[in-house]
Amino acid sequence: MGDKPRLTHPDWEDELNTLLPLYGHRNWIVIADAAYPAQSRPGIETVVADAGQIEVARTVLDAVAASKHLRANIYLDRELEFVREEHAPGVTRYREQLAALLRSANKTTLPHEQIIAKLDETAQLFRVLIIKTEMTIPYTTVFFALDCGYWSAEAETQLQQAMAAHS
Questions:
Q1: What is the CATH number of domain 6-166?
Q2: Distance in angstroms between the alpha carbons of the first and the last residue of the chain
């Protein structure tokens, strides 16, 4: 019998602050819209925030930035660029707010299914926190793929090259 995903209504900020010190590179935090599905993997925890998407994303971004051990690589759905205002009222304003919030963040835009595949692969071994928000515009989920805050990708590349040269 598989474990059921945990759907809770604790204070989402308390949950974030409890888990963030435990999380490291390869953990993810997902800021999801209201229709984001409950996932079935045991390593995925879902909490509901009675808050807006931008507010929650800002809080997570600030919390990660304030931690000494983490940084975030952010994934956004490519589809969001093509959602039309007539089909999703408020999408234009949301895109503007998100762009302002993430202006200096390390972000990548990919098709939604590719991001979900990365998340699914990660969740096989590492924990994921999903924070569902009140957002009712499609393709607005913000995916924070956590990475080591005190070791850069460049340093890792140089390390791997040095090891390969030594072999």
A1: 3.40.1650.10
A2: 46
For 124-165, what is each residue's pLDDT tens digit? 999 999 999 999 999 999 999 999 999 988 998 999 999 999
**What residues does each domain of the chain span?**
6-166
Give yes or no for a contact between 107 and 61, defined as CB atoms under 8 angstroms apart.
no
In whole angstroms, give the CA distance from residue 145 to residue 107: 10
Handedness of CA 80, 81, 83, 86 (dihedral sign): positive
CA 117 remoteness from chain centre: 13
Over residues 59-86, the pLDDT tens digits come to 999 999 999 999 999 999 999 999 999 9
pLDDT exceeds 70 at position 3: no
CB atoms within 10 A of CB 34: 13
The helix/strand/coil state of 58 is helix
pTM value? 0.89
Can you count the helices (H) and strands (E) in the chain?
5, 7
Nearest to 80 by CA among 97, 64, 63: 97
**Do residues 60 and 21 make contact, with C-beta atoms less than 8 angstroms apart?**
no
Distance, in Å, from the CA atom of 122 to the CA atom of 125, rounded to the nearest integer, reads 6
